[in-house]
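Continuing from the previous page...

OK, I double-checked the sequence for Peroxidase against my notes and this is the correct one:
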Amino acid sequence: MFFSLATSTLLVGYASASQAQRLWPSPQLDALDAARFDQSGFNGNFLMVFTGLDRCDNFLFGGGSTGRSNAADWIRTAYHDMATHNVTDGTGGLDASIRFTAEKSRPENAGDGFNNTFQVLSSVANRYVGFADSLAVAAVLAIENCGGPEIAFRGGRIDAGEPNAPGVPQPQEDLETHIAAFARQGFTPTEMIGLVACGHTFGGVQYTFFPDIVDELNDPGDTEDVAHFDSTSVNFDNNVAKEYISGSTQNPLVVGFNDTTNSDKRIFGSDGNVTMNSLASSPSLYASTCADLFARMLDTVPHGVQLTDVITPLPVKLANVEFTMANDTMMLGGQVRFWNHTEESAGTVQMLWDDHLGAIGNTTLGFAGAGSATGGKYTSAWYGFDPTGSPFASLSLDPAAGIQRLRFVIDGKLEDQGGVGFAVQDAYMFSESSCLYNSSVSPEGDVTASGRVDIAVRNGVNLTRVYLETVTQDGEGRIVIVEIDIPRPEQRIAVNSAYSLWNLNTTSVDEFTIGAEIDGQTYSTTQLRSVLDSDFLPCGA
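Thanks. Re-ran it with the corrected sequence; updated structure tokens here:
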């Protein structure tokens, strides 16, 4: 039983994407890359920045020394979610079904770590990286940033629309039941020993939810009464195995007062301690074993779900690319990431572009900030699309010329994705002529507003549809995209010589992106907007 209790849209589930021929842009793969590798520093992701995972003893849902950690909760949640898998009929697996009350309220899923985990993931999951992929990413970040090995990560999991069948063995059950449960999940008896030992490098068992296993500790340094699996419960190491073999372990599932619930003792000793002796004697073997077993755990998905190739970081990747029209000026904002670089190694960075008039433009980019991943093992250098490097500044362009594709020169080397460049889409964009008619707040705090959304569309492009996209969840808790069409204007409303306006009056205060269909392809902008934003000045002002 995986006990690290410390305690421990419908757009999600796109067709699989290949890493082998990957070019930017590829929205799903780019989002998975960002979730996986843009961990700390500039453009660092929410899981790292908000939860403070750089401190592995941090616990978001309790102050002081609780004895719990975010990392342990996330890893336990990932295993319990996966443990519903049945290799015979292909059902269950890592699909975020444990977010449903009917599943997480089962006796096998005791504790509040699942709720805690999905409270965090609800701020992370999006149209490209759903709840299941976000859960897998969370487990990877927890392992890697708390001393563990790199984990091969794939994306493309599909969020479940309903609970799965029960699947997690409980500590009071006998060895044969545990062996059968892990076999159903796809693991051999030896792998069962390894996976439990790997998972139990983090966390422990909490008295509140398991009073038949552990006692109250009355320890001011462990206010939530968590009896830990080893002496280094917030760091990845092989102490759980070393302490077990040496006889010094305090693991409550090995030396607990209730021998019926000493499931780790039965599991670890099931092969005469052969596996545990190996894991205890070699930190490198323990790390490599755990890297393999954790990856297999996270890749255990329902039949029919096709995962992507292993996600690797692009050497050069753009982020937050957004065109905006301001009367006679086109603005381009965004940043570019150079992987495994620092500001010093990148040197002077230039951005070149091909415009619609056959000319080539160029500018020197300013350093925006440094990023890091995997506990600082990898670094990245970020540059903004203007000489200051400010993430809030934009490059001013002639609308008629615009931009078709970008290229970069870093440390004297041309980066252009093998000659194809970095294609950008300036056929449509948000116009700063958008405005707010009115807004109000009721005594109950409800906000209402109405406004006009203006979209600038390049004259002459084969654009068949423009629409607002809002993200919500369907009745089964899956992420869906609601599209609201913007009507084609009956007469041209000129913005400038190159662009015309499409507009929509709306009373929605929901955040939106802008989608379009151009030459049979669909596109989406990246920046979330709302009529309540400062971009929407009062109409007529």
